[in-house]
Amino acid sequence: MTFAVGRWVLVGLSLLIFLGITERVFDRMHLSNRMALLMVAALIVGSFINLPLYNGEDLSVQINLGGALVPVGLALYVWFKAGTIKEKARSLFGALVTAGIIFAMGRFLTINEYALPIDVIYIYPIIAGLLGYLFGRSRKGAFISAVLGIVFFDMLHGIYLIVTNTPGLVHFGGGGIFDTIILSGVLAVVLAEVIGESRERLQGGPSSEGRDPSVLKNLQAADDASMLYLREEEENEE
Question: How far is residue 187's CA from residue 31's CA, in Å, rounded to a whole number?
Fold first, then answer.
């Protein structure tokens, strides 16, 4: 039993959650610190659990709990919590485009795998993370597009193996896909947070276009509280 890259990333993420460093990000995704820690634990534990779906002479089909079912459940929860219909539609469209692009690239990368400067397993999450941010834009949308994009890609790959009668194991969410899902989701949210935060600071606050009024009210209240805290600190120093 190996402790893969994705699991180490989740361990590091759990420490950040425990220290409260990621609280603001999870608040915007409608996740409390407790819920986030429970999800991290479920992803880690579930990554060791494979559920058999089909066992034949030449083909076996399995699904990994932490690499497929838990990420899908988390992404759907975040999707239902998305602020507007436009954001929901954009994130799902981004997931489909991400899956299609990665599936198409997978055919090329498989042929030219040894000519690549880095392992394929790290190329997929980079592509998914970038596409997730570009299509999702918000933190929630980026996460949904990246995570579901990888899940849809894994499904397409499994269907392709089944249709072409390729003997072996079809492992949804298993193996390297677990690492890919974790890394792509984290990268997409980091990009959305860093770029989104920079844009908000440049424009003097969060954009109101297409945003849920209640979300904007909470964000503005949080920003006002932060500014008040900073002013009080400056006065105490003086």
Answer: 18
Q: How many domains does the chain have?
A: 1
For residue 138, is it within any domain? yes
User: How many C-beta neighbours within 10 Å does residue 232 have?
Assistant: 10
202 to 137, 197, 198: CA distances (angstroms) = 17, 9, 6
> Would you say 146 and 184 are in contact if contact means Cβ atoms under 8 Å apart?
yes
- Quote the radius of gyration of the chain (alpha carbons, Å): 20
The pTM of the full predicted model, rounded to 2 decimals, is: 0.78
Q: 91 lies in which domain range?
A: 50-204
Dist CA 155 CA 173 (whole Å): 9
Count other Cβ atoms within 10 Å, centred on residue 148: 27
Residues 68-100 have pLDDT tens digits of 999 999 999 999 988 788 888 999 999 999 999
d(CA 171, CA 64): 7
- Cα(first)–Cα(last) distance of the chain, in Å? 57
